[in-house]
Amino acid sequence: MPSIRLGNSSAASVMRKHMLRRLLRPQHFLCQRNVQRAASTSAASNENATVGFIGIGHMGAKMAANVAATQGRTVYVYDTSEDAVKACCDQAAVLESNGDIVGTSSAAELVQQCSTVISMLPNDAALTAVTEASILPHMNTNGIHVSCSTVSPHTSRMLAEKHAEAGSAYVGAPVFARPDGIASKQASFVVSGPTEAVEHAALFLEPSASGIFRFGEDPGAGNVVKLCGNFMIASAIESIGETLALAENNGVDRNQVMDMLGSTIFDCLIYKGYGERVGQRIHMPDARFGLELGLKDVALVCDTAHKSGVPMPFASTLHDRLLAAQSRGRGELDWSAIGLSISEDAGYSVEPEDFSRTE
User: Which CATH class is domain 224-355?
Assistant: First the structure.
């Protein structure tokens, strides 16, 4: 068989992929103690830093409360929902420190008062709109914007360029955690951006974190990692649903199967947690991670893969599965509700009472 040689274009492509792998390689892992040591090098400047949170839903509100409680700071908050602002500020009454939580009347007012702004917004459009309308025009020179949203890496890179032009810094810091994980300080942040800005951001992420993982200075790298993780979680949910449908249609108890697998060869957080939800069909009333958000994230995976020249055929399958579940009126359920569609495809009739229980 004749040998195959790579031409210049192929060699360049291989080199680009090699450089990308080096760029995305995690540079640092900081557990809670290490975060404190890293932050202590600039403690003098950080002691007087002012911080605010834009977007205080289930995740942002708990992050704000953690900072106020552990650092005794005044934390400023803003949300388009006045009820959310009030609920967040009410948490100050039970803080075990001198910290306080203060609501602002607008995002612009918050930015003007804070040297560090942390945003937790639902999608690319919301993040871009708030950044362009309220953060960039009002942020002080050398200010830092830390985005914890799950968005496209291309959006983060675009916003980082605009921040640099304005004399401020942008840090991408998406988070692996559900609201209860934030509250119990078990979040994992995947962070990327300018080194000094990342070190400063860690001070305000650490109160909610079990770990902070750094992925270099590319502001979109952390978003790539988050999309990779969410793709793997969605894949696990699909595999659990198909596995249990196979067991059920062969007369084997689905929950007994999942209990066995989750306590032996699949004894890990994702398979145990989602195995219970899919197995027992527990998907409401309070969605842990809404199906609509899952659809948005898998769409981002597909878009990023397309722009990167990476075939991901199973991502397309997951996108269609989530889209079909949303079309069936299940967008408000937890994204594990795709298991219902899998059961239906296998001929099982799913009734509303089958998934109306809580954990």
Answer: mainly alpha
| DSSP H or E run through 101 | strand 100-103
Query: Could you count the other beta carbons within 10 Å of the beta carbon of residue 55?
Result: 27
Using alpha carbons, list the distances in angstroms from residue 296 to 125, 150, 152, 292, 342: 12, 9, 10, 6, 20
What is the distance between the alpha carbons of residues 36 and 33, in angstroms, rounded to a whole number? 5
What are 72-115's pLDDT values in tens digits? 999 999 999 999 999 999 988 777 667 899 999 999 999 999 99
Contacts of 271 (CB under 8 A, 6+ apart): 236, 240, 261, 262
The arrangement of strands across the sheet holding 28-30 comes to 28-30, 209-214, 187-191, 175-176
How far apart, in whole angstroms, are the C-alpha atoms of residue 274 and residue 294? 14
300-329 b/e (C-beta count within 10 Å ≥ 16 → b) = bbbbbbeeeeeebeebeebbebbeebbeee
Judge contact between 241 and 342, C-beta under 8 A: yes
Q: What angle do helix axes 153-166 and 221-248 make, rounded to 10 degrees?
A: 160
Contact (Cβ atoms closer than 8 angstroms) between residue 144 and residue 201: yes
Tell me which DSSP letter residue 334 carries.
B
Is the CB of residue 237 less than 8 Å from the CB of residue 334? no
Q: Find, among 211, 163, 206, the residue nearest to 190 by Cα.
A: 211
Give the C-alpha distances (Å, rounded to integers) separating 125 from 27, 51, 121, 129, 334: 30, 23, 9, 6, 22
18 pLDDT more than 50: no
In CATH, 26-217 is 3.40.50.1000: no
Tokens at 171, concatenated: 């840090």
Q: In the prediction, which pLDDT does 19 show?
A: 45
In this structure, the number of other CB atoms found within 10 A of the CB of residue 92 comes to 18
Domain spans, the chain: 26-217, 224-355
